[in-house]
Amino acid sequence: MTTTPFGTGCHLHLIDGSAFIFRAYHALPPLTRKSDGLPIGAVAGFCNMLHRYVEGNTGPDAPTHVAVIFDKGSHTFRNDLYDQYKANREAMPEDLRPQIPLTRTATEAFNIACKEQEGFEADDIIATLACQARDAGGRVTIISSDKDLMQLVGGGVEMLDAMKNKRIDSDGVFEKFGVGPDRVVDVQALAGDSVDNVPGAPGIGIKTAALLINEYGSLENLLDRAEEIKQPKRRQTLIENRAQIELSKQLVQLDNNMELGFTLDDLGVRDPNADQLLSFLAEMEFRTLSKRVADQLGKEAPAIVDAPAQSADAAEAPTVADIPFDSGSYECVRDAEALKKWVTQIRERGWVAVDTETTGFDEMVVDLVGISLCVEPGRACYIPLTHKSGGSDDLFGSDDLADGQMPLQDALDLLKPVLEDDSILKIGQNMKYDAKIFARRGIDVAPIDDTMLMSYAMHAGQHGHGMDTLSERYLNHTPIPIKPLLGTGKSAITFDRVPIDDAVAYAAEDADITLRLWQLFKPQLHQAGVTTVYETLERPLVPVLARMEREGIKVDRDTLSRMSNAFAQKMAGLEAEIHELAGQSFNVGSPKQLGEILFDKLGMEGGKKGKTGAYATGADILEDLATEHALPGLVLDWRQLSKLKSTYTDALQDHINAETGRVHTSYVQTGANTGRLASTDPNLQNIPIRSEEGRRIREAFVPEEGNVLLALDYSQIELRILAHVAGIDTLKQAFAEGQDIHALTASEMFNVPLEEMTPDIRRQAKAINFGVIYGISGFGLARNLRIPRAEAQGFIDRYFERFPGIRRYMDETVAFAKEHGHVQTLFGRKIHTPEISAKGPRAGFAKRAAINAPIQGTAADVIRRAMIRMPAAIAHLPARMLLQVHDELLFEVPEAAVEDTIETARRVMETAADPAVHLDVKLVVDAGRGQNWAEAH
DNA sequence: GACATCACG
DNA sequence: GACGTACGTGATGTCC
């Protein structure tokens, strides 16, 4: 490597690469490479900026040395100082991520030194180099407008805002901060920075900070003499927040003494290598820039083959695949040599669609059978790993491995570097499943994209998001069904018994379909206006959920077993009594038989219902009958016990994992159209709590020895969101003052002073409050409160009279749904309402759902944001996040760390809407702890 | 596999 | 003027 000694008279240029990238990304529309759709806008802008920069470097002021400096990794020493550092940063846009490595390549193509270092921000490298250059007697120009770099100005160091072509010297810094460069960090430490989440001193901005620093000379002197400050508020703030201010200084202070793996001498300006640069520009298919650069270098512009332009209506009719599916064309990878070739292809591409085949559906139990990969439409492979010999018709097929498979561990060892490589995107359909399979084998798959989640972000409310649905709908292709391969019922086999040839066709096709869906959906996210939803609420949640599911929660089998026995005994007693009263034996669990006994044999009042012609025997009906007869009440008791036993005390025992001794639920991220999660196998979001008897089931959910369970739940989050979106000042004020919201509603509606409030009036108001969230109707409220319909309607009328904003919100929401076919949450999540203009009763359903969705959905978005931020926030604590129940998060934590965990988790939850949305109503989180889930609540 | 029922927020 | 109706889920047992 050639070196150019740096010394007196030399001039170093340091380019802030990340700033270039983001400027380029936001300045240009989302361009894609014509030939394959690779997002390329930021790279194009970046190259244009570099080119313009190189062009301008003439004359006596030209640099002798230059480097472009990048950030690397997301965790720096500042995160160790302060876990919330940059915690508010939104995730990198999905279409930008694959472009990051290309900007490095671009820099090298221009033959400019390209530097980054793990664990440090670009700013620290810039600081270190600037100091070295200054000490060596040279000049430095930092090409950036980032105010965090202004502390470096002076003594031959200046900044240059490349966009405005404006130099910033000491005077410029003074203009910005009111102090010289040497005191910039003091001012920043006081003023804080909301963008990087540097706390600073509350209530003190740059102006006040400069005033104080100028008066006291330095931050240290100011803090030591804080008692002397005349303004009481200011004095108190500085004294109380001393530690926080000192921490802030550490955060903003750049490290100018880093260990670097290179020296200034390595950064000498070099002429571009014409061939290298032109071939890179051609590869990116930058026609204009290629031509311009070629002209300047006196070379011929490289040919860029014109790919057929996408038809204008491609987005509207995306059902035609250019390349036909051919299940016979897929490769079966049987040895390391073949797999290595795929690894090379993946590295060249920078992305790969991945799918795993397993012996079942429980990711915590199943074995890995094979892996499929796809790098471009039609080009996919399947790697069989643990298929057994003996065909599917051989019921007693041997447990020997089939021939022609590479050892499982060999395949994983080859794939691990790819699956964990930051610069290679792993694409999946329901990637959480595959990520968990890999995680159990020590592979942490990242970064990922997920076609199921893309579909959910774009199409929630329109259709399902399973692969078969998406393939038929958007690729006009019916995937090979799995049924014929596995069979059904008792004779069904697991995938490891499927002949490898059949497996290749089926499994590789899944990866092929996934890749095609990804290529189709990727540009559509932007067009549908849901890139932010996908990037900030969907994609980053995947690893969080995967981890929670893998943690699981300890459930005490003995407790459940004892309860099951007790329930069985009670049920037997009740059953005997019921048969006695009925005068005959029958199946109490059969609504049909029960209906006939009650209404035909015993002649109670009540009609048939439903298309089936069977009597309705729901709890509400039995409750009414119970006032006249003994039998219905006994059936209700029996049903409660039956439910608790079968669904909870029995079934939960079967879900205790033999290996971990814990219960591992699966969250379905696309389970609810509103943005809520769903929990399955088992559902841990509907563990009983409302009845005393059922609540005791929560006693079986326990922490490990020495730990406690911690439950944090949002207080009235949906009503708070309603108050915000509908702009109800009275409610907002009530929440601000911490009042009892249902009592206040009651007081407003029924003109009862708060001090004279009765539980019954409050209960009615509470029902109305909830009704409003659900898209209230007189009928529904009447049924809920068991009052005449006219009376219920009177309540509603009064409510709307008192809170006219609610009616306005409802009308506007329905009108919006009719106009756009969807409603949305405060965070931009879209929920489609295809039936909103239907005729008949369906319109009523759609209307109420449309009214409810933005409220329920915004609450769901808020807790998602909290969950996404939680792992980093509690990383320094021994706490584990285990469960989510819509407005509640459950943690397991050693006793010693309980207080810290509550404080940290509560802060994350209460500030989860920031900075994307500013709610007029503060969010409040209640916390509870205990030796089981019942106590913690 | 549809339906009724009931557990949760 | 009548229609029907609270919002969002998942698991279980019965019955065809």
TrEMBL record:
<keyword id="KW-0239">DNA-directed DNA polymerase</keyword>
<protein>
    <recommendedName>
        <fullName>DNA polymerase I</fullName>
        <ecNumber>2.7.7.7</ecNumber>
    </recommendedName>
</protein>
<comment type="subunit">
    <text>Single-chain monomer with multiple functions.</text>
</comment>
<keyword id="KW-0227">DNA damage</keyword>
<feature type="domain" description="5'-3' exonuclease">
    <location>
        <begin position="10"/>
        <end position="270"/>
    </location>
</feature>
<dbReference type="InterPro" id="IPR002562">
    <property type="entry name" value="3'-5'_exonuclease_dom"/>
</dbReference>
<keyword id="KW-0238">DNA-binding</keyword>
<dbReference type="InterPro" id="IPR019760">
    <property type="entry name" value="DNA-dir_DNA_pol_A_CS"/>
</dbReference>
<dbReference type="GO" id="GO:0003887">
    <property type="term" value="F:DNA-directed DNA polymerase activity"/>
</dbReference>
<keyword id="KW-0378">Hydrolase</keyword>
<dbReference type="InterPro" id="IPR012337">
    <property type="entry name" value="RNaseH-like_sf"/>
</dbReference>
<comment type="function">
    <text>In addition to polymerase activity, this DNA polymerase exhibits 3'-5' and 5'-3' exonuclease activity.</text>
</comment>
<dbReference type="InterPro" id="IPR029060">
    <property type="entry name" value="PIN-like_dom_sf"/>
</dbReference>
<dbReference type="Pfam" id="PF01612">
    <property type="entry name" value="DNA_pol_A_exo1"/>
</dbReference>
<dbReference type="InterPro" id="IPR018320">
    <property type="entry name" value="DNA_polymerase_1"/>
</dbReference>
<keyword id="KW-0548">Nucleotidyltransferase</keyword>
<dbReference type="InterPro" id="IPR002298">
    <property type="entry name" value="DNA_polymerase_A"/>
</dbReference>
<dbReference type="Pfam" id="PF01367">
    <property type="entry name" value="5_3_exonuc"/>
</dbReference>
<dbReference type="Pfam" id="PF02739">
    <property type="entry name" value="5_3_exonuc_N"/>
</dbReference>
<dbReference type="InterPro" id="IPR043502">
    <property type="entry name" value="DNA/RNA_pol_sf"/>
</dbReference>
<dbReference type="InterPro" id="IPR001098">
    <property type="entry name" value="DNA-dir_DNA_pol_A_palm_dom"/>
</dbReference>
<dbReference type="InterPro" id="IPR036397">
    <property type="entry name" value="RNaseH_sf"/>
</dbReference>
<dbReference type="InterPro" id="IPR020046">
    <property type="entry name" value="5-3_exonucl_a-hlix_arch_N"/>
</dbReference>
<feature type="domain" description="DNA-directed DNA polymerase family A palm">
    <location>
        <begin position="694"/>
        <end position="897"/>
    </location>
</feature>
<keyword id="KW-0234">DNA repair</keyword>
<feature type="domain" description="3'-5' exonuclease">
    <location>
        <begin position="330"/>
        <end position="526"/>
    </location>
</feature>
<keyword id="KW-0540">Nuclease</keyword>
<keyword id="KW-0235">DNA replication</keyword>
<comment type="similarity">
    <text>Belongs to the DNA polymerase type-A family.</text>
</comment>
<dbReference type="InterPro" id="IPR020045">
    <property type="entry name" value="DNA_polI_H3TH"/>
</dbReference>
<dbReference type="InterPro" id="IPR002421">
    <property type="entry name" value="5-3_exonuclease"/>
</dbReference>
<keyword id="KW-0269">Exonuclease</keyword>
<keyword id="KW-0808">Transferase</keyword>
<dbReference type="Pfam" id="PF00476">
    <property type="entry name" value="DNA_pol_A"/>
</dbReference>
<dbReference type="InterPro" id="IPR008918">
    <property type="entry name" value="HhH2"/>
</dbReference>
<dbReference type="InterPro" id="IPR036279">
    <property type="entry name" value="5-3_exonuclease_C_sf"/>
</dbReference>
